[in-house]
Amino acid sequence: MTAPNNTERSFFEKAAYIVTPGSVVFALLYYFGHTYHSAYYSYFGLRVSELGFAPQDYLLGSPAAIFLPLWVLLTLGIVGAIAFRSLEQRLSHGTAAQRGPVSRALAAVGAGLLLLSFPVFLEPAWWQRAMVVLLPIGWLRVLLPAFLVAVGGLVLLFAVHLGRPPHLRGGRFWGVTEGLLVSATALIVFFAMARYAHGAGTSEAHEDVMRNFSGMTRVLVHSRQPIFPTAPNVRCEDRGSAYSPYRHRCIGFRVLAKTSTRYYLVPRQRLADGDITLVLQDDNTIRVEVRGKR
Prior knowledge:
alpha+beta; 6-stranded antiparallel sheet; about 60% helix
């Protein structure tokens, strides 16, 4: 057998470095996009599995779900990396006795922030009453507690790195310890971003309702059978046999979603006692005219 030459090995190694991270990124974008869409349509009592979205639909929806937390995360990462690097350079020429108190202080801060993971993840009632309600409603309430826990993991990681002598930094035990801290931090960030994606979907649905679905397509519905809407601003009328077979017309609906077999329609103005989605089969019993988003 002939061993593969260095050129082939280099090519396959480079391909592995590209394909594997890319697959992870696409999987994460798909997950966050799915979480966002699921929360959005759940607000109206729908399941995304009913709507037949393609994977690219979830990928295209993912920026709305992760842009803000990703921006905050990158900003914190840059600031933290600069701060840690500056501190490490200042202590690089010091003795172990000088680095010891600093590393222990950082370890205490990191461990304390990591302990917040229990109330942040479990969300006991006392945590909700005593801490969470103090934060303003919105992205800060969703992201801040989880990101503080993630910062704790990074601070503890830096404390471990700073506290041990340089000749021990390549040991297996310390490598496993750092790997566990990195994995824990990654899980915490994933948790925070998934929670934000869900909250962003729900918030966007609520905003659409409050805006009276102004960004959605208006339609005229022509039907063979009478339609009895529950919204006062949807007007349906029987125009008589001259307009047969689609003699019944409804004005005031907007398209929430459309599949190959169904229309999901909402009234152009929310109801006082809740939001109602009208589901119509897309068959020969109805005809829909698109009127634009005005």
